[in-house]
Structure formats: C-alpha cells, structure tokens
Amino acid sequence: MTLETLLEKLTYTVVQGQVNIPITQLVYDSRKACENGVFVCISGAVTDGHKYVEEVVEKGVTALIVEKKVQVPSTVTVIQVDNSRKALAYMSAAFFGYPAKQLKTIGITGTKGKTTTSYMVKSILEKTGFSTGLIGTIETIIRDKVIPAKNTTPESYVIQETFREMVDAGIECVVMEVSSQGLMLHRVDGFTFDYGIFTNLEPDHIGPNEHKDFEEYRKCKGLLFQQCKIGIVNIDDTHIEKLLEGHTCQLETFGFSDNADLSATDTHLINRPGFFGISYGVRGKLNLDVEIDVPGKFSVYNSLAAISICHHFGVSKEAMKEALAGIRVKGRVELVDVSDKYTLMIDYAHNAMSLESLLTTLKAYNPKRLVCLFGCGGNRSKLRRFEMGEVSSRLADLTVVTSDNPRDEKPEDIMADIVTGVEKEKGEYVTITDRKEAIRYCMVNAKEGDVIVLAGKGHEDYQEIKGQKYHMDERELIQEILKEEQMK
Q1: What is the three-class DSSP state of 310?
Q2: Helix or strand or coil: residue 103?
Q3: Is 236 exposed, middle or buried (0-12, 13-18, 19+ CB in 10 A)?
Q4: Where on the phi/psi map is residue 209: left (φ > 0), alpha (ψ -120 to 50), or beta?
Q5: CA 307 to CA 321: how far, in whole Å?
Q6: Angle 297-311/352-363 helices, nearest 10 degrees?
Q7: Between the CA of residue 258 and those of 140, 212, 280, 282, 298, what are the distances in Å?
Q8: Are 134 and 141 in contact (CB under 8 A)?
C-alpha cells in the first residue's frame, strides 16, 4: 500500500518528500513506530505527538502526518493537514480497505440509553439471523470474542480495525455507541453510518477535558446526523430541533407523541416478585404489543428506538417481542436473583441526573422501602457528591453511603461530601466505607418488599485506588455474602 492511497480522501500539503512511497503500517502511538510506517502526530489533551517525531524517525518511520512544523531529515516525507485526528480516521478506513462498506452500520448517541439500546438492537437482529457485532461502553463483541472496553467510542484506527475483523468473521451488521467525545474527536469520521439513533439529551460531560458548555455538547451529538443516511430520533426530546440543525439525513421519529412515526401508547407497569417491567403498545408504521423485563419509561424509549431500527431489516413482530422480553444488560437495572423477600439490582447510575431518573422510576412501583447504596469517584467534582447525596435522600427511604473509586482521595472524605448533600433532605442514611460490608448491611437488614439499588459501579468489575485497579465485581460480592451468611 502506498501513502498516496492512504491519503486519497484527504486534502493535504506535501511539505517535503514523495507520497508514492510504500507504507507497511499506520501508527499514532510512538511506541509502535516501525520501519516504512507512517506516524500521525495527534495533538492530544495529555501529550502532543509532534514531540515524538525524532524518536519515530529513528525507528524507521518514513512519513509523518503533521499539523505543525517539524524538523526531520529530507528522506522523511512530511504531510501537513488541518486536523490530524480527522486524517487518522480517513487513513485508517483506507488502511483496512473501507470495511464499513461491507457492513450495515448503526450508531447510537444520546446522554442516556445508548448501552441498553445497542444490546436491544443486537438481540433483535440476531434473533432474526443477522450476525451482529457490537462496540460500546461495556465491551466489543465479535461473534464469540469479547473485548472489555476502554472508551465508549474507541479511537478511529481501532474502530476500523474492528470493522475489518468483523467483516472477516462474516458479520453483517454492527451496532455501536457513539459518544459526544467520539464525534468531537473525529473517531467516527471516514465512513457514513447507515443508521443513526438519538435517544435523549441532558446536561452531562461538561467540564475540563470534556465539553466547555452544553451548547458544544449538543452540537457534537448532532454531528452524527450529518454523517448517517437515515436518522431515527426521539421526537419528545426538548432539544431535538437544535440538535438536528444542519442534518443531512432522512429522518424518522419515535416517542410518545402522536406525531411520531412510531408511537408508544397504553403503558402499564408490571410488578411481580423479583421482576419489574413495563408493557406498552406500538402504533404508527408498525403495530404490536411489547413487554420488557426492564422497568421505567426510559425502557420504552430505548425499545422503541430498537424497534425503529430493526423494522428496516424486515424483522418480524414475533422476533422483536421475543428478543425484547428477554433482554438483559450488565449493570443497567440488572436484577440479581437473591431472595423472594426483596429485590436487589445493580445499576451504573453515577451522577445526579441518572440517579434521579432511576430512583423516580423505581418509586413508581411502590416498594415497601427504596434503599440506595452508592459512592462517588475521587479526583472528580465535589458538586456531583452533594447532588447525588441530595437526590438519594429525597427519593430513597434509606441511603447507604460507601466507597466507589476513591482514586487519590480518602474514601471517608468523599463520603463526608456525600453526607453533606444527604442531610439537606429527610431520608435516613448510614455510612459504611467498605463496599462489600455496605452491600452486606443492605442484604442482612432487608425488609419484605424492599427494593435495593447498588448504584454507580454497574458493569465495572474493579475499584480504583491510588492509581491501581483492584478486582471488585458486585455480583461476586453478593454471592460471597450469601455463602458467608448461610454459614453463620
């Protein structure tokens, strides 16, 4: 492959050297530089790839993609571009032979619901015989191969490499979560999604190293609808008009509104021992009745989005109903079967907005008591701690304050901040630093009809302390506690 081939869809300036040279590898990590490779200098938040040009040239790199001036031997080709992240995306697509053209690509963006919706789509499509890969917050799935995720939306090179592996494995469709950061940093440039889904938008991910304000956050989410063929969006969201400004795709809508292409009607909460769900009717371009083993109004939105997508694949109503009835997503309102006496669940809610949504949803099922266990991450905003404490104390009957990922802070200091918020409202609370012991407290002291939520960790199976990640899976802790209590 030649450098010229990798650059075929880019606008660039040849600062020195030739573009008709052979290239064996495309790299953006200086540690992976090799002979006859091309190194893309990324100006990142943590480090600047331009600082490593001397090092990568010594390793045999014969071409550089830069945004800034660099001093290298005349034997090295230097290509200047306006945005090296964007260049990496297009070059990665070319390097792997444009694999997205051989897949049906489905991108899901939104503040909440991306993960659950992606698993719903995958489940429905596979029920109908479409081999479907997944890229998301929890993991990447390529047939039987499962790779734990590092980012919601990986770097563009990794995306294209994954697409190529999926194509080679005979996969037909891929559903992926598309974060605002992924869109802003051009990780999904270089191809056009066949379908783009928008779930909802609320203030989040605003601050240092994320988005400077809500307007930027909204604009970044909206970029998906400038690079997909068909956009499927939540018509009920208050930000939908501004989010879609400049869209270039064909639009379809879902929601509770009568104006939606797919509309939800006649919702009913389902409450059985150890089971919280919801049923509703789908009306519009498709008519069916659905029951989902995941509680809450947000589950209606997520499943409507999945139905909207899968309708394009000719999926039967029966297959949709069957797939949705059995959906399970790790760490997303995940019910853990421990007792007929009370309900225990694990959820990823890790900020005030998601915690309020979760607790409000569960209160609608009229539990005897609503118990909420959570902590907050260290090296993060104290405001989140105050807000989560206040929300839990207002909505839960009992708040159990414990440790999450303390990182470089003392768990007790983080917990004290949470308690400051808890004490602004009327709910009872206890503080137990050790997370396992906090979970034990909830289980041992559970009352008939209680609903206990372990919030914040969700799918995570570690606890981060002083720069190290220690294995800690709440599912394992629950089983350990059950065995230890039986032996007493």
Answers
A1: helix
A2: coil
A3: middle
A4: left
A5: 9
A6: 100
A7: 36, 36, 14, 11, 18
A8: yes
Question: How far is residue 411's CA from residue 402's CA, in Å, rounded to a whole number?
Answer: 8
For residue 351, what are its two tokens? 């900020």
Both tokens assigned to 280:
């509703």
Cβ-contact 366, 451 below 8 angstroms: no
Cβ atoms 254, 260 nearer than 8 A: yes
User: Which structural domains are found in the chain, ordered by start?
Assistant: 3-95 (3.40.1390.10), 99-325 (3.40.1190.10), 334-486 (3.90.190.20)
In this structure, what DSSP letter does residue 43 have?
B
Question: pLDDT tens across 421-469, in order?
Answer: 999 999 999 999 999 999 999 999 999 999 999 999 999 999 999 999 9
- For position 212, what pLDDT does the model report? 67
Task: Specify whether the CB–CB gap between 87 and 65 falls below 8 A.
Answer: yes
Decide: pTM greater than 0.85: yes
Residue carrying structure tokens 């307007």: 215
Burial of 58 (0-12, 13-18, 19+ CB in 10 A): exposed
* Cα–Cα distance for residue pair 236/198, rounded to 1 Å: 11
Q: What is the DSSP string of 260-308?
A: SSEEEEEEEEEEETTEEEEEEEEEESS-EEEEESS-SHHHHHHHHHHHH
Element containing residue 196 per DSSP (H, E): strand 193-198
